[in-house]
Amino acid sequence: MKISVIGTGYVGLVTGVSLAEIGHEVICVDTNIEKIEMLKRFKSPIYEPGIEDLIRSNFEAGRLSFELNTAVNYDECEVIYLAVGTPQAEDGTADLTYINQVITDVKASSHEDKIIVTKSTVPVGTNAQIKQKLNEGSDVHFDVVSNPEFLREGSAVKDVFNPERIVLGSDNETAIKVVADINEKFDAPVIQTNFESAEIIKYASNAFLATKISYANMISNLCEATGGDIYAVTYGMGLDHRIGDKFLQAGIGYGGSCFPKDTSALTKIADKYQVDSSIVKSAMKINEQQQTKLVSYLDQIYPNVKGKKISLLGLAFKPETDDIRDAASIKVINELLKRDAEVHVFDPEAMGNIKNIFGEKITYDETVDELLQDSEAALVITEWEVIKKIDLSEFKSKMKRPLILDGRGIFLDADEDSDIEYQTIGRKGAI
Ligand code: UGA
After folding, report:
1. What pTM was estimated for this model as a whole?
2. Is the shortest distance between the CB of 150 and ligand 1 below 6 Å?
């Protein structure tokens, strides 16, 4: 089947490449000429392990191509995937500007019936509106299927080929069948439902996972206050299969382009329908406090941090990505700058993105060695492999004061080392 996928961000690019890999002919479409040119040179505009090899092999096999939105002929494709961004608007709702623009473009240039598959995360009611807008005064007929995406950044390629479920929401069974057939090669249960349920499954899943993380973080604060140990506690909880150990890792909270945006959007939808969403609102509040938890440790150790070299190990919101959207690192750096600290940072992939925000206000060290040299505190932000591998002796030999504030619980052995001052989340330590 010939398919076009509009939007070459995480969701669009990974979807397009995976559909090509299972044998479909796919055109990936974007409004950004630079992105299209990069893709034609097999360069991915996003950092995602494994994606560039798949772009090249599918392009060479003749199944994958890239087009600017103004150059594409949508009538070549029976099915069009919408995978443009739905960023958070000023008021916390999802901004549908890109979706609306695409609908207008597709409608204007379609002369044959089509199925539109919505991959973008959109508020409840949007797919029904999309269908109405497309068909209003149109000579051709559009069906719409909501097909939310559940892949994670950093492991998107692995996730997309191993989905745990395929959710298809529509008011038309034939359209659902077409999209189910497109996905036939993915070995996963297919949930066929209406638009609203499909839309809610996406928000409810992300908000549930975010709430689970905030719950672990709330318990970690209780551990710190009472002498409990969050690592023992979450291990003990996670062995209960009804709870499970996934997304129960306490730390410096969740960031990224999904959990913060989708929790906020869900509460806005609930407010609109006068539904109490205080569970999710509390999860959001706890997350906000947790993201600067390491700074509160630092304040207790250094009431005045002015002029001290403070080192951030990692910047991305999670490993294996250069994404810093809503990353704790941004809040931590802002707080440190307010206190006139000398901020040094290191990240294998995300330094360029952080530089776009902070410019020359902070120092970008190319190696962990440089970062730790003469530093007076190391703050662990992202659990990259290269950071996890740092030997404890490095902190002792290089730092002016071997003080580790560990937001990801990756140097727990340092707790036993009397030459290191160590504080992690959810356990009594140096403070
Ligand atoms: C999340 C969901 O996991 C995906 O299923 C969903 O498709 C995606 O959002 C989306 O809506 O597009 P993602 O944001 O890429 O994926 O990354 P996650 O692996 O979920 O991590 C999110 C944040 O939670 C990270 O900052 C991570 O460090 C944090 N986290 C995760 C914890 O603090 N503790 C945990 O136990 C797990």
Report:
1. 0.95
2. yes
